[in-house]
Amino acid sequence: MKQPLAHLMAIAAAILWGTTFVSTKILLDHGLSPAAIMLYRFLLAYILILPITIKQTRVAPLRDELRFLALGLSGGSLYFIAENVALQHTLTSNVAILVCTAPLFTAFLAKAFLREQLKPLQWYGSILAMTGVVIIVANGNPSIHLDLTGDLLGIAAAISWGTYTVIARQLDNRYHTLLVTRKVFFYGLITLLPFLLLAPETLDVAPLRRPAVIWNLLFLGAIASFLCYILWNRAIQQLGATRASNYIYLNPLVALLTAAIVLSEQLATGAAAGALLILAGVYLGERQKPLKQQP
User: Fold this and answer.
1) Distance from C-alpha of 249 to C-alpha of 5, rounded to nearest angstrom
2) Rounded CA separation 104/110 (Å)
3) How much is the pLDDT for 181?
């Protein structure tokens, strides 16, 4: 695969994931719990991917199987539970800032475990994009406050996603992208079970009768999970953990625009400036390839 296509895949995944904040908000407003939303979206994604990967029965070594388990935990149950529960404890703006630090954590983890080296221009791009994120969310709600529980969960979600991206890169090209993605959905569901057992009342099926719930779950399961995880995993294989993760900075920009269109939320006056900084940061981060990995 040529790298321009890999960049397009990462951009497409980041843009689509940016719209999921609105879908998730709609589902939460209709009475679905964070755990239930993840269960339905991952279950649908797993059902969709199973038929096209049924012939891929390669038995992975125990070490790689444990990596698949870690992918399902870090990029599935732990990430979604941490992020959505954080929204129940602190402001959305706090969570948006903290979750969008995932590329920074990815860079640190990639340097520690993958020995991926960054050029200064890529660090400058990350700082610029992060500044844009802060401007967008803080300008919309200047009364940002600290809530220890919610903010720590937001940080946990960012670290979790950074961990997922690095572990996915460790698998390199030894497994087909579809097989890796299927494993993520499977282990994501398995590691979600403890959360469901602790709060079984969260599986209220009454909201599933509403068309808005059905359509948003279909989007989250078929597009944001099934399609986007395939695109993201493939992009990681081609670009590396750090370069692919840089596109996550597009999430708040897309989320802001989607909320304005779908939920009629007013755009903050500083949104344009923040958006320009994000785009400039992403451009700088992708302008140069990272230095070669150390031996």
Assistant:
1) 19
2) 10
3) 92
Q: How far apart are CA 256 and CA 205, in angstroms?
A: 30
DSSP label of 201: G
Distances (CA, A) of 76 to 53, 135, 203, 275: 19, 29, 18, 28
List pLDDT tens digits, range 172-181.
Answer: 678 888 899 9
Residue 146, φ and ψ in degrees, nearest 5: -95, 135
Taking the CA atoms of residue 106, residue 107, residue 113 and residue 119 in that order, the dihedral angle to the nearest 10 degrees is 160
Do 185 and 47 form a contact (C-beta atoms < 8 A)?
no
CA distance 263 to 260: 6
Total length of the chain: 295
Q: How far apart are CA 288 and CA 114, in angstroms?
A: 18
**DSSP of 169-196, one letter per residue?**
HHTTTSS-HHHHHHHHHHHHHHHHHHHH
Classify 222 as helix, strand or coil.
Answer: helix
Q: For residues 293 and 114, is the Cβ–Cβ distance under 8 A?
A: yes
Cβ proximity of 51 and 270 under 8 Å: no
Closest to 72 (Cα-Cα) out of 154, 233, 182: 182
Angle, alpha carbons 226-92-7 (nearest 5°):
40
Secondary structure of residue 289 in the 3-state scheme: coil
Specify the 3-state DSSP secondary structure of 295. coil
CA 74, chain centre distance (Å)? 10
pLDDT at 294 over 60: no
Count of beta carbons in the 10 Å neighbourhood of residue 131: 16
pTM of the model: 0.79
